[in-house]
Design goal:
With 199 residues, the protein is mostly beta strands. Helix content is 3%, strand content 56%.
Length: 199
């Protein structure tokens, strides 16, 4: 199923955006981010999010991201934004000309975590596969859209019923860059069940 044909809706639509038949192009705005309290003490809840709503409890969502990030913490990727206190995101966050951080943030009841691994700043494209099994979720990444590696499995306390999910892009510092999202598909759940994994 084509994600864009499911009529996604904006939470904080960006000033510069193009939504085509098969891709979305966002020009980020400086000072935009998603983060809740932990470590830094502040909460920033102003990144643009483009999502659909579903009550389907078993599915996978795939998206390819391409980006021209150049300022610290510039990021774009997949998101499940339920409300300001309960959400998830996965992306590459730019650090400097040598290092970026491929990672994910899970925010439950107003507190965020951040799990990362360092990768080269020469990487300017990444695929993500976001999968749901009831209120449990899996996020995977891929450089070629074929071979995926698990980033993390997590639980959303408020994610057991109807949810919203999709894409986001932001520039927490002074940045502004172009983020391109394509190949957005919804499929049967690609995350194996416990019984399948043990077989």
């Amino acid at each position: 199923m084509d994600f864009l044909k499911c009529t996604p809706k904006w939470t904080r639509q960006p000033k510069q955006v193009q939504v085509g038949e098969d891709e979305v192009v966002i020009m980020t705005e400086s000072g935009t981010d998603l983060w809740a309290r932990t470590y830094y003490g502040f909460q920033n809840d102003n990144a643009p999010v483009f999502q659909i709503e579903t009550s389907d409890k078993y599915f996978s969502f795939v998206v390819k991201t391409e980006f021209e990030s150049a300022c610290r913490f510039d990021q774009c990727g997949v998101v499940m934004y339920l409300n300001s206190d309960n959400w998830f995101k996965a992306s590459i966050e730019y650090e400097d000309e040598k290092v970026q951080r491929l990672g994910s943030v899970v925010t439950n009841h107003g507190y965020s975590d951040w799990a990362t691994t360092d990768i080269s700043s020469e990487i300017k494209s990444m695929w993500y596969r976001f999968s749901r099994r009831n209120s449990d979720y899996c996020i995977e990444c891929s450089e070629d859209g074929i071979n995926y590696s698990q980033m993390r499995i997590f639980h959303m306390w408020e994610g057991g019923e109807t949810i919203t999910y999709g894409i986001y892009a932001c520039s927490p510092t002074e940045g502004s860059y172009k983020a391109v999202f394509s190949n957005m598909k919804i499929t049967e759940c690609q995350w194996e069940s416990d019984a399948e994994w043990r077989a």
